[in-house]
Amino acid sequence: MRFNVAIDGPAGAGKSTIAREAARRQHMIYVDTGAMYRAMALFMLRNGIDPSDTESVVKQCALAHITIRYENGEQMVFLNGENVNSYLRTEEVGNATSVVSTIPKVREKMVELQQSLAAENDCIMDGRDIGTCVLPDAGLKVYLTADSTVRARRRYDELKAKGQECDLEKIREDIEERDYRDMHRETSPLRQAPDAVLLDTSSMTVEEVVERLMELCRERRG
Ligand code: DC
């Protein structure tokens, strides 16, 4: 039997940092589902398709072949054979992703890929609908959240550390807009699964959150 961990929560709650580190310590793979949706949005942007033009996105998404490979434990996303990891984490792609990911046809395609990864590997998977839709039988479900001001600050520090110019207030607005869209879309909105453990990380350090997640994994995995 596979042991899978589902982590959901809003943008900037620290899901990927926590999940990546926990997966490393648990010898599991880390599946970043946001990166898959981001690759789809990148495909649309590169081809001049308006992410909110549902009809065109549905037509074009059949031409986007997205696959995942692991290199030194890191998830690599391939878009039609090209490793696109380094193009995925911009704010432009993030905002387009939040729009593209509302489209059911896009979600169908991504969920299929995610479920096949979880069937073949013990994994920690993060996203918005993992506990509610992708892995309803996950051995552990966690809903990771933090105050939007704290999340904006974290993202701001992250971008600054990479040398990117950014504006804290604009980041907070984008985060709140994205949260609203993710939580109110018709298909698989972001929601805490009834059986998920709630972790509010507003005043926790990364190490504290990873430790708590390790404890939960040990309890559930036995
Ligand atoms: O986690 P992230 O910031 O990389 O996600 C980018 C967008 O992708 C986010 O706005 C919502 C969407 N997403 C989703 O709808 N379902 C997922 N499982 C993961 C991400």
What does the oligomeric state look like here?
single chain
The total of helices stands at 9
Strand order of the largest sheet: 2-6-1-7-8
State the end-to-end CA separation: 13 Å
Keywords:
five-stranded parallel β-sheet; alpha/beta; binds 2'-deoxycytidine-5'-monophosphate; 9 helices; 222 residues
Summarize the structure.
The protein is α/β, with parallel strands linked by helices.
Task: Tell me what you see in this structure.
- The structure is a single chain.
- With 222 residues, the chain is of the alpha/beta class.
- Helix content is 51%, strand content 17%.
- It has a single domain, classed as 3-Layer(aba) Sandwich (Rossmann fold).
- It has a 5-stranded parallel sheet, with helices on both faces.
- Helix 1 crosses helix 9, helix 2 packs across helix 5 and helix 7 packs across helix 8.
- The chain binds 2'-deoxycytidine-5'-monophosphate (DC).
